[in-house]
Structures are given as C-alpha cells and as structure tokens.
Amino acid sequence: MANRKKQGKVKEKDSGWEERVVQVKRVTKVVKGGKKLSFRVILVVGNEQGQVGVGVGKASDVIGAVKKGVTDAKKHLVTVPLTKSNSIPHPINGISGAAQVILRPSAPGSGVIAGGSVRTVLELSGVQNILAKQLGSNNTLNNARAVLNGLTQLRTFSEAAKDRGVPIENLYSK
C-alpha cells in the first residue's frame, strides 16, 4: 500500500499558532499475540511571524498522535530572521540525515516555490518569497528537519557585523 500524504489545517484561536498535519502513517509492531497497530503523525506548528517547529507523535489513535505531535513541535521551535520582503537574509543549505535542502531568498511577489513538507514549514514560518529545492531524499520528516536546520543557521546583517566586530556600514561597502 502506497503512503499517502494527508494535509490538514487547524488554527488555535487563543494564541495565533497554526498546526498543519504533513503526514499520517499507519505503523505496525509485531508482538506475541499478533500485530499492534498505531499511527505516526508528522506535523508543523508555526505562528507565521518567524517561529516554527516540527513534531512527531505516535499513538494508538490519530487524535492522540496529533496531540503528542503538537507538544513535540512546540518543544522544538525555531526563530527565523525575516527580511522586509518576508524572505530570508541569505542563501543557506540545511541537512538532516540523507536529506539536503537548498534555501534561497527570492524577489518580492514570487511566493513560496517549494514542495512537500518543505513548503509547509516555510509557509508556517512566515516566509513568503523563497526558492527551495530538496536533494538526496524524499523522506518527509528528514526534509522538514533539514529546513529547520537551515533556518537555524540564518543570520541577519547586524548579527554578522557584531560577530566580526565591525560596524554594519562596512558590510555594504566594497
């Protein structure tokens, strides 16, 4: 049976966090009495203002797995530095396992050009103009985590200037 991706949207009214289920997978474990059926859910939580997290939940029912996934995602939140054009400050690569994701800033109005779980993570982080490409693996979870890895490595111009010990104006001059 082929894996089918299911996408759903849930918006919490009180806090502004949005949850999107990226994948629901039925998994089995062989035990003494036969096979034990459970569900694994991969979901993304974000506030579309620069914070995003990916979580995994496993339970005997889908609702329980989603609740566990939300808790896991909120434990692994990442803050994304966004530019004025709702893009990322510079190109970056993210790696998780065999999955590699290339993230490049894009011109205003171009939208999110990405596929699968990469698109979901970027949309919920608040990025609106970006180019992304998955390399190496089609694994949904590893691609989502590779995007988070890339987003954690992003630095703003002011952070780079502070690390180098130079005024920010020197970064722009040639």
TrEMBL record:
Gene3D superfamilies named among the record's database cross-references: 3.30.160.20, 3.30.230.10
Alphabetic keyword roster: Chloroplast, Plastid, Ribonucleoprotein, Ribosomal protein, RNA-binding, rRNA-binding
Keyword Signal annotated: no
InterPro entries: Ribosomal_Su5_D2-typ_SF, Ribosomal_uS5, Ribosomal_uS5_bac-type, Ribosomal_uS5_C, Ribosomal_uS5_N, Ribosomal_uS5_N_CS, Ribsml_uS5_D2-typ_fold_subgr
Superkingdom of source: Eukaryota
Domain S5 DRBM span(s) in chain numbering: 17-80
GO cellular component, one term: small ribosomal subunit
Pfam family of the protein (one): Ribosomal_S5_C
GO biological process, one term: translation
Molecular function in Gene Ontology: rRNA binding; structural constituent of ribosome
Homology family: Belongs to the universal ribosomal protein uS5 family.
Function: With S4 and S12 plays an important role in translational accuracy.
Oligomeric form and interacting partners: Part of the 30S ribosomal subunit. Contacts protein S4.
UniProt protein name: Small ribosomal subunit protein uS5c
Gene transcribed to yield this protein: rps5
